[in-house]
Write a structure and sequence with these properties.
73% helix, 261 residues
């Protein structure tokens, strides 16, 4: 609050120029006045020259706002009234100047409160803008990460297809072992295996034998009936499907092995 500090500085000069301010312009001469108990009674000494140095940046510490200056001015007079008896001249001068200063401060206070309110509003806007910017950055990071993951998945899928196309032809023994392995899969894993097959195979109905077509017809009809007639005591569909597929795979593998020379 540089402008407020400048205005308060004018008020302080009016106080220090008062004829009654002579005891408070400089630090108390504790040694010269033989005030041996001064620092036992006064824990923090203060005077107008120290305040002036802090306002001008000549002291080790500086003021952050005008309320800190106000507190130090009151401390000057409070120390004087605390150390000196009520009828002591220094006590009476401190009391009189404190009343003058408090009156000037009451007139000055609305400006201080207005400036403090303005600063709080600006800080709130800054925090809101910072939070909005942070949320936008997080959203962008999430989108970029999602795009990167999608790109990686796409590249992995292309790599998988490339590897599959480059695979060597499977031997009869490997096919037999594959068929046997399929029979030991859980229903869920078997469904996933069939999905892989469905991705690679287009079923040509005209190329199937009459026996295969009729078996498929009966199987499909029974499967649809089971789906439409859900009951607590029905047979586990996945288990039955697994057995039928395993039987079909076993028969096919057996026929191929017999055909081998």
């Amino acid at each position: 609050m540089p402008d407020l500090m400048r205005q308060l500085g004018v008020i302080l000069r009016e106080i220090t120029d008062d004829n009654d301010a002579w005891p408070f312009r400089e630090p108390v001469d504790v040694v010269g006045l033989h005030l041996h108990d001064y620092y036992k009674i006064i824990t923090k000494a203060m005077d107008f020259s120290t305040i002036q140095n802090k306002m001008e940046g000549k002291d080790v510490t500086t003021y952050k706002n005008v309320r800190e200056i106000y507190a130090d001015v009151r401390l000057i007079f409070a120390n004087a009234m605390k150390y000196n008896d009520d009828e002591n001249i220094v006590h009476l001068l401190a009391k009189s100047l404190l009343e003058k200063f408090e009156e000037k401060w009451r007139q000055f206070l609305p400006k201080v409160e207005s400036e403090e309110k303005r600063q709080k509003e600006e800080e709130s806007k800054g925090v809101l803008a910072s939070n909005t910017s942070r949320e936008a950055a997080i959203a962008k990071l999430a989108k970029d990460t999602d795009d990167e993951l999608n790109q990686i998945n796409k590249q992995l899928e292309e790599l998988r297809k490339m590897l599959v196309h480059r695979c060597r032809k499977m031997t009869t023994d490997e096919k037999r072992k594959l068929g046997a392995g399929l029979c030991h899969l859980s229903p869920d894993d078997l469904n996933k295996a069939l999905e892989i097959v469905a991705q690679e195979v287009d079923l040509d109905m005209d190329a199937q034998s009459e026996t295969t077509l009729w078996r498929l017809k009966f199987f499909v009809r029974e499967a649809l009936e089971r789906q439409a007639n859900v009951a607590s005591g029905k047979m586990d569909e996945n288990a039955k499907r697994k057995r039928e597929i395993c039987n079909a795979l076993a028969k096919t593998a057996s026929k191929r092995i017999k055909k081998q020379p």
